[in-house]
Specification:
With 181 residues, the chain is mainly α. It has nine helices and no strands.
């Protein structure tokens, strides 16, 4: 059992954990691509973070520590689900984690860029995104709703995700150029 941190240290830990939840969740969602599984992984990561609260030092950079813990929880998720042929192997999961870490900008900037890019999508594409992420429907349910084949829906998602990725990268690059002196 870990020692209880001093009240001021605990307050700092709670403040950082609370402030970084959306960034941590964004990292997990970007890696697993599923909000429901990401929420479970985030809960497990939060438990590990709490158990190790005494390791946190106020003033230290919280996010790299939290992301490392989340990374291990994600790898555990993939290992536990490895028998499911629809889940990525641990090697692919590690590669995805590395890619997300390398490309992950400040979540706030990235979220703002994503919101703008979503607003610029054609209505048909936005509806597809809403069905999947707001209604949390499966690909099969979306296909039934839209009266299309499941493969057609999957292909449409690939196209929309590529459009969004390109748009977000372009906006972040433009922001970094305009922010430099």
């Amino acid at each position: 059992m870990s020692a209880v941190p001093a009240t001021s240290d605990l307050d700092g830990f709670i403040a950082e954990l609370t402030r970084r939840q959306s960034g941590l969740q964004a990292y997990i969602v970007a890696t697993v691509g599923n909000h429901i599984d990401a929420a479970d992984i985030l809960q497990r990561a939060n438990l590990v973070l709490w158990r190790n609260a005494t390791s946190f030092r106020p003033g230290a950079d919280f996010m790299p520590w939290a992301v490392t813990i989340a990374k291990y929880e994600i790898l555990s998720y993939y290992r536990d689900r490895g028998r499911d042929r629809h889940v990525f192997s641990e090697d692919v999961a590690s590669l995805m984690l590395q890619t997300v870490q390398e490309e992950c900008a400040d979540p706030t900037e990235r979220q703002l860029a994503l919101r703008t890019c979503l607003a610029e999508l054609p209505e048909k594409s936005r509806r597809l995104i809403r069905l999947r992420y707001e209604s949390e429907k499966t690909m099969l349910q979306i296909a039934e709703t839209l009266r299309r084949s499941e493969n057609a829906v999957k292909c449409a998602f690939v196209r929309v995700r590529k459009l969004l990725e390109a748009c977000v990268k372009q906006r972040l690059a433009a922001e970094s150029v305009s922010a430099s002196p």
